[in-house]
């Protein structure tokens, strides 16, 4: 299917209640600090209001966004991004004890091997400790290697725990060229109405100040969240894909 056909199908996903989409507690896997706010900010805020705060795991350290900076070397930037993640969670009403940082290398999250399996085991432990019934991962077609790796982690988790519901949320995949062909057949899923939480979601995204171009000043080629992505993320519905 072409991207525009898939996006059109997303727009026609049935709107469903929070309980129908994700009953119980959810384990949200974010490839980088900010993906949780972009793709699931409304979901997180809604879950907190309903008394079911999710567990959010940041898989990579996010330290590759400004590799040209001398003032913000990777170690310092990784700590800053953790701080921003806590600020974003606070904006969404989520306490920091629900946040976990795996610290894997940004842009090099493994798709297999020893480190991959250790990460999966850690995630399984978290899911068990917090009685999670759902796992949220990025969409397979998000055009970033870390997003794909975390999607594969989700597949591995479901293989080990078939009772867990696996849902995918799109981020960068929503910005793909409309005529690009993807190996995707008739995706299914739901739309969650998050209109009441859009202001909260915006504040959470803005809490990731280093990604908004507001912190690192000595790397003109460094990453900045583009407006066209923010526009797509701040919509009344969030998309959750089941297949």
Task: Characterize this entry briefly.
With 243 residues, the chain is an alpha/beta fold.
Characteristics:
243 residues; globular; alpha/beta
What is the topological layout?
Layout: H1 3-11, H2 18-21, E1 25-30, H3 35-49, E2 55-60, H4 74-92, E3 99-104, H5 114-129, E4 132-138, H6 145-160, E5 165-169, E6 189-193, H7 198-206, H8 227-233, E7 237-241
Parallel strand pairs: 1-2, 1-4, 2-3, 4-5
Antiparallel strand pairs: 6-7
Helix pairs in contact: 3-7, 4-7
Output the strand order for the largest sheet. Answer: 3-2-1-4-5
Computed over alpha carbons, the radius of gyration is 17 Å
* Beta-strand content: 15-25%
Number of helices: 8
Helix content: 25-40%
SSE run: HHEHEHEHEHEEHHE
Please mark out the parts with pLDDT under 50 across 5 or more consecutive residues, or reply none.
none
Shape: globular
Strand segment count: 7
The overall pLDDT, averaged over residues, is 97
Secondary structure class reads: alpha/beta
Distance between the termini: 14 Å
Major sheet details: 5 strands, parallel
